[in-house]
Amino acid sequence: MTGPLSGIRVLDLSRVLAGPWATQTLGDLGADVIKIEKPGGGDDTRAWGPPFFESVETPGETMAAYYMSANRNKRSVAIDMATADGQALIRQLAAECDIVVENFKVGGLAKYGLDYAGLSAVNPRIIYCSITGFGQSGPYSDRPGYDFLVQGLGGMMSVTGERDDLPGGGPQKTGIATADLFTGLYGVIGVLAALHHRDKTGEGQHIDMSLLDTQVAVMGNQALGYLISGTEPTRMGNAHISIVPYQTFATRDGHMILAIGNDGQFARFCTAVGREDLSGDERYRTNPARVTNRDSLIPLLEEIMLTRTTDEWVELLEANTVPGGPINGMKRVFENEQVAARNMSKNIIRGNGEAMPTVASPMQFSKTKVGYSRPPPKLGEHTREVLDEILKLGPSEIARLKAVLGE
């Protein structure tokens, strides 16, 4: 493995999305990630499909796209942690690791001696990141947490969806698991900060990540707007609470986004469409005025936007330096010249020479490159390799542990 975290080893006791997203990011950065999975089944997301990647080289072998999306650059080790021997193996691995990431319920690993107290006893330098729905403290700490539930509790669904007074109005979750993904990324930030602290002091620590904490935090301007004003933000569909015009519009052949963020852009837009009267109107000259008078301005813009196709609008807006663009499905996303130029779609080559698709990391380094050396692993693919390489277990000892390893 290469990358800025080359030489760092991660013990991944997580499954599904928030934890695996964090450990995949660490793996992309060059860390050696050892994913512990339950023999016989592994991470739940291995079965979350369709769609499934189907191996051409090995007919009948499949892997869920969901699992693949969060588990590249890892080695899979099958260990039954419900057994004493399995727990002993995991403790031995923790002694050789820098970081542990887990997303069991609060206290779920204590009975195995694999919680922070147990693993820091064998490795005081360990950085141990726990990801739960509601954190290690508070009245909800014992509850299971799910992204959908947390989007509702944390306010995301109160501002996502069409206005209640319009057709289709009502709360909506986001199209991706934002609470999970943001928590995974914040978990990485916490781990990197803890690594820096350990470099200075030699001491490890416990990082307590909560889906709900993260969801509240990423409400950003909506949350702070409420704290300042006391006014509840509402669902506005694709419109923006503080910027006008900043929303979707129907065009002659579909829909597109107009994202005008300042008065100069609005003036250029009006000039481009021959409606300088609008930018000269005191009701619309400034953004605060446009926000106040959106109900009269938006219908005028809706009429204008229907006069051209989406592609015609994109060309006109680009020519006049006005932000706007199409609403792409995944096909057009990966056909987009900018996405292609940034190499956001890659293949990772398996040991048998077969190419597995992956979406690239968005991190672009000038020196320490993101790596794509390990495709998402088959369940237990690296069990013997890791036990031999890291724990120096011989064939006889591994043979004794066959039941624990699911072999």
Tell me, briefly, the overall form. Answer: elongated
CATH topology of the largest domain: Rossmann fold
Q: Which regions contain 5 or more consecutive residues with pLDDT less than 50?
A: none
* Strands side by side in the biggest sheet: 5-2-1-6-7-8
Main sheet makeup? 6 strands, parallel
The CATH class of the largest domain is identified as: Alpha Beta
Category by helix and strand content:
alpha/beta
Number of domains: 2
Give the % helix: 25-40%
Going by CATH, the homologous superfamily of the largest domain would be: Crotonobetainyl-coa:carnitine coa-transferase, domain 1
Characterization of the model:
The strands form four sheets. Strands 5-2-1-6-7-8 form a six-stranded parallel sheet, with helices on both faces. Strands 9-10-11 form a three-stranded antiparallel sheet, covered by helices on one side. Helix 4 links the parallel strand 6 (99-102) and strand 7 (127-132). The chain is of the alpha/beta class and 407 residues long. It has 17 helices and 13 strands. It is 37% helix and 15% strand. It has two domains: 9-217 and 343-400, Rossmann fold (3-Layer(aba) Sandwich); 246-335, formyl-coa transferase, domain 3, CATH 3.30.1540.10. Helix 1 (18-28) packs across helix 6 (178-201) and helix 6 (178-201) packs across helix 7.
